[in-house]
Amino acid sequence: MKNYQIKTGSKLILSRFDPDDTGKYKKTDQDKEKAQIVTTQLISKLSELQERLYANGNRALLIVLQGMDTSGKDGTIKNVMSSVNPQGCKVVTFKTPSAEELGHDFLWRVHQKAPAKGQIGIFNRSHYEDVLITRVHGLISDKVVKQRFNQIKEFEELLSESGTVILKFFLHISKDEQKERLEERIRNPEKRWKFNEGDLEERKLWENYMDAFETMMAATSTDQSPWHIVPANRKWYRNLIIAHYVVNALENMKLKTPPAPAGINFDTLKIE
Amino acid sequence: MKNYQIKTGSKLILSRFDPDDTGKYKKTDQDKEKAQIVTTQLISKLSELQERLYANGNRALLIVLQGMDTSGKDGTIKNVMSSVNPQGCKVVTFKTPSAEELGHDFLWRVHQKAPAKGQIGIFNRSHYEDVLITRVHGLISDKVVKQRFNQIKEFEELLSESGTVILKFFLHISKDEQKERLEERIRNPEKRWKFNEGDLEERKLWENYMDAFETMMAATSTDQSPWHIVPANRKWYRNLIIAHYVVNALENMKLKTPPAPAGINFDTLKIE
What we know:
Chain A is built from 10 helices and 5 strands.
């Protein structure tokens, strides 16, 4: 499997990453099908591993999904995470902060939603919006941006030192692909409800967003909490890559069946 | 499908309900398989309907699961709800209240966890523990129990009037079946971690619990928020019955594709 993880401190040039990349798979129906079979296997592995994560209740996994509108954050959750036991999986969608949330530092509402031990937490958008949309619209100074990068790193270090494995995914689509996906929402009456006029305004700022993503990922990809640039023009490849990294992270936890409670002699125990 | 819903104000005699009931299905491998096929179809219908519930974002579904230890609350969530998009499904497991929670009325922590519009909320145990375990252990007076029944009914009425459909399931197993399930946890080293010595203490109070369940369901089953007594000795039949009622409730919402946002002329809209 090709590596999409950003190394700590590496110089990052986003334009060098191809959103249309499909790794060792060709862009044919046959290879797409091959990839989908592997994805299905990974998803079934994922749901087994998640049961064990839940049973042990001593580690957590946090998945952060970022990307432009239509890049497939919702689709990833639906396709990769839908076979997981919902008892051990919590999705948090971060929207425009409420008045109460704005009364606190930007990590306040995020910290509350960090996954508990035993859980997979999925952030659909996250604290990274606070160094993306705010930056692109000039709502915060460069000094504050830098400060926030540090605050984010320290926050994620706290989670990581407390047993949470963090995986951050940037769903990388091309500007043309976004055009097609937006046009599909316009064309297809069944999909029009998904259309949001605001998306067109953000689209005009595409280059500024790419710059902001580039700087942000270079500044906040660490060994404990790495960013992955996922080629996301092809949904089937995007699903495969994400399923791969999630399974890999859970396997690396080396979770076993939890131990039996101590102090009980199971051999002589009788149920009346 | 046989009806397991408790009618409002009906005299309820729990001992008349057979935990081993399998309705029109025989207790043969062949009929079990038949039931499982129907369940699979219902689950696939459920995940479609849930997408629509989420898309519309104007109704919610609250599923309350109660039952004795080992009655299959976790198993129901795993087996019936695991194909649902976790973005639209939140499971809340209510444990012993924290000191902060005890500082408030018993519905305070529950209200906070009520499902938002667009969501399926699943309560694994619930506010009903506050008229069950507390009652069986003599921690609250009969007067308080009656008061709480009213408070619960009014609370659920508030949710229901705000667009939440409520389904309450009592997973009904026999005392013998619990014995077998506890023994399996003792016998099988892979399952010992699930064993909790406290369960044996509660088991001694079986009859008291049955009385408490009986009174509680008779007092709090309403047309808007009905209790169902689910025969749960056979896991495959339990799954079928619950999947049936959940799908039925979602179908009754008559959810359509949400309307397109107003004020946009989709025919002339162009993406740059």
